[in-house]
Design goal:
mainly alpha, ARM-type_fold, 26 helices, nucleus
Length: 440
């Protein structure tokens, strides 16, 4: 008998235990009440300084460790969104709101904000947060912190609330009237070395600028673009949704005047970042490119390049690829892949449509530029700015030449065809010319 736990008393009612449980978890309401009381005692002690006077250093450290461990259990518990509705009765948002201004322990602050970030997925908790102006101000003020874990959780909390159509407005209003918010964001992007914080900050900016056009107009300028490029360099190579977020944010730049101006001014730094991504896409043969993976980024990158091309004088537009000469060959490789897969994967037709617009603008800018250049000056272009066209002329194996001309002309635009014929004649590109003039 001594080797097992004692049996419950005869009159023990197991239903009482089930009623006390939080959802279907192993945690009880009694445990959570006890934890919240301990937490409030900790907050009160920091406020009144009784903690330091009434406990020895070792005892205080043990108590803090125990509280931290139990709060981490609550943090883990709130990851399960199915149990969030069972936590409403405990007024956790209100308790933590009142405590935020009194906490000085960075680890406890990180945990508390992390718990709030999880609770924000619950509509009722999200409403309570959004109805309290004091809470919103306290959370936004945490971006002044220089504690990286706290900043990570703060960005996540704000991003989660902003994802709510119903409750985002008061947060956006507060952000709009706090210029320090943007300054803190810039500081993080320019100075942090933590990749998790940097991508979390970029995600937050992306959400804000997509939901608030007025903030996008103000923020999407040279300062933010420079900060994003610095952060992207710090993060090195990103994968999947992380790099997609940056491309989507840069696409927001292309939708307003200040953003386009910033992109044009820094295009020689922006273009190589696209080149890294496009070369990754082109590691596969055209018919094997996994366009489902790359779709969102390609639908952002190609229009961004086109917006810059359309904003530059013709001669500058013709030369702007020199910062990464692999860009256009990669885009032609992608066009070839789209044409090979367009019947089995219809979504690539959107990419083809974007490439059609871009290639047409490129050809028109080249045609206009060549009209201003004498014949002696044209020859060096074929080994310089227009080397990619010379390479296309000499491509007899991969089908890239036909892919390019088909993409340029797939909408039957007569002006583009005339420009392309003119370019081929002036640059002496007979194979491309044949591809353009042969009915397919």
């Amino acid at each position: 008998m001594s080797t097992r736990n004692p049996s419950p008393p005869p009159d023990y009612d197991d239903s009482n235990k089930q009623v006390d449980m939080i959802g279907d978890t192993a945690y009880s309401r009694r445990w959570l009440f006890s934890l919240l009381i301990k937490f409030l005692e900790k907050v009160n002690s920091e406020t009144s300084a009784t903690w330091t006077s009434s406990e020895s250093d070792s005892t205080r450290k043990d108590l803090e460790t125990e509280l931290e461990e139990q709060l981490c259990c609550l943090w883990d518990l709130t990851v399960n969104r199915d149990v969030l509705e069972f936590l409403d009765e405990f007024e956790i948002v209100s308790i933590f709101n009142n405590a935020l201004g009194s906490l000085h322990n960075p680890r406890l602050l990180e945990i508390i904000v992390g718990i709030l970030g999880n609770l924000a997925y619950d509509p009722l908790a999200c409403r309570k947060m959004s109805e309290s102006e004091a809470f919103i101000i306290r959370i936004i003020s945490l971006l002044y912190s220089r504690d990286t874990p706290t900043l990570i959780e703060t960005c996540r909390l704000i991003q989660t609330v902003l994802a709510s159509d119903e409750y985002r407005t008061p947060w956006l209003n507060e952000i709009r009237f706090q210029p320090e918010f943007f300054e803190n964001i810039l500081f993080i992007l320019n100075s942090s070395t933590n990749a998790t914080l940097l991508i979390g900050t970029v995600r937050l900016i992306d959400v804000i600028t997509r939901e608030d056009d007025s903030l996008a107009e103000i923020w999407c300028g040279e300062q933010l673009l420079t900060a994003i490029l610095i952060a992207q360099h710090q993060m090195k190579w990103l994968h999947g949704s992380e790099v997609e977020i940056i491309h989507r944010l840069l696409y927001t730049f292309s939708s307003n005047v200040n953003g386009v101006s910033a992109l044009v001014k820094s295009f020689s730094e922006v273009l190589p970042t696209f080149g890294v991504y496009l070369r990754k896409v082109c590691e596969d043969a055209p018919h094997l490119i996994h366009f489902i993976t790359y779709y969102n980024s390609l639908r952002a990158i190609i229009p961004i390049i086109d917006v810059v091309i359309a904003s530059l004088p013709c001669m500058d537009a013709m030369c702007c690829y020199l910062s990464d000469p692999h860009i256009l060959p990669c885009l032609i490789h992608i066009a070839c892949g789209c044409q090979k897969q367009k019947f089995e994967l219809p979504l690539v037709r959107g990419i083809l449509a974007d490439l059609n617009v871009l290639f047409k603008d490129i050809i028109k800018s080249i045609s206009s530029s060549l009209k201003t250049i004498d014949e002696v000056s044209i020859t060096p272009l074929v080994t310089g700015e227009l080397q990619w066209l010379a390479n296309l002329e000499n491509d007899d194996q991969s089908g890239f030449r036909e892919a390019f001309t088909n993409c340029c002309l797939n909408d039957g635009d007569a002006e583009t065809k005339a420009c392309l014929i003119s370019v081929c004649n002036q640059l002496k590109l007979p194979k491309i010319l044949e591809s353009v003039t042969t009915d397919n």
